[in-house]
């Protein structure tokens, strides 16, 4: 059962990710105010990586990795052997909230893709009227509802939650990739919606996937 505090934070993180973007949402996720505070210690993932706003103070000994695509959205990736206490006391709950952040980014990506497609035509007909495209968008919408249901049922107080959490993040990534494919080549450009999807997927790798896909 999620506490009212966690539920409120998840809602705030989700809405910030959807309406503003990853930098602002990560500031909320890490517990910061609007102004970076030296006392805020971003949470480290199991692989020793951190993703946080670019303007967060860099801890002594931390090394910022060359990740230009997230940086373009105001997000930095660090590599650092964080001291004891840098990880969240309730890492499962923290990752659950991160799942809501990624769902917010997925919804933001959907809005971006719809705006792009609304101005595209093929054979004089708007692409959004094509049955194949409408069906693909419907599949993404169904998946988003299923992901929300999965999150609502997730109990991070149970020590066996992590496989379900990993599956959830993998499915969010699949949904984002499906949206990129609907955008054609535009979806995979560094300055297009691909940047948002890449940053979201990297968040999953850092905090749920052990950082396997992040440069050491």
TrEMBL record:
<protein>
    <submittedName>
        <fullName>Acyl-CoA dehydrogenase, C-terminal domain</fullName>
    </submittedName>
</protein>
<dbReference type="InterPro" id="IPR009075">
    <property type="entry name" value="AcylCo_DH/oxidase_C"/>
</dbReference>
<dbReference type="GO" id="GO:0016627">
    <property type="term" value="F:oxidoreductase activity, acting on the CH-CH group of donors"/>
</dbReference>
<dbReference type="InterPro" id="IPR036250">
    <property type="entry name" value="AcylCo_DH-like_C"/>
</dbReference>
<dbReference type="Pfam" id="PF00441">
    <property type="entry name" value="Acyl-CoA_dh_1"/>
</dbReference>
<feature type="domain" description="Acyl-CoA dehydrogenase/oxidase C-terminal">
    <location>
        <begin position="100"/>
        <end position="153"/>
    </location>
</feature>
<keyword id="KW-0285">Flavoprotein</keyword>
């Amino acid at each position: 059962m999620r506490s009212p505090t966690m539920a409120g934070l998840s809602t705030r993180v989700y809405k910030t990710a959807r309406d503003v973007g990853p930098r602002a949402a990560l500031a909320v996720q890490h517990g910061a105010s609007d102004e970076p505070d030296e006392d805020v210690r971003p949470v480290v993932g199991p692989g020793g990586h951190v993703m946080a706003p670019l303007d967060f103070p860099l801890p002594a000994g931390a090394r910022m990795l060359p990740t230009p695509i997230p940086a373009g959205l105001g997000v930095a990736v660090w590599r650092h052997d964080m001291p004891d206490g840098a990880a969240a006391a309730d890492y499962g709950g923290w990752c659950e909230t991160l799942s809501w952040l990624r769902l917010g980014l997925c919804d933001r990506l959907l809005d971006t893709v719809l705006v792009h497609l609304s101005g595209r035509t093929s054979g004089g007909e708007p692409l959004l009227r094509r049955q194949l495209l409408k069906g693909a968008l419907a599949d993404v919408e169904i998946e988003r509802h299923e992901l929300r249901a999965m999150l609502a049922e997730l109990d991070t107080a149970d020590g066996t939650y992590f496989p379900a959490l990993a599956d959830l993040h993998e499915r969010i990534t699949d949904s984002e990739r499906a949206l990129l494919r609907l955008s054609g080549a535009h979806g995979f450009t560094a300055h297009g919606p691909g940047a948002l999807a890449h940053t979201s997927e990297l968040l999953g790798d850092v905090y749920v996937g052990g950082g396997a896909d992040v440069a050491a």
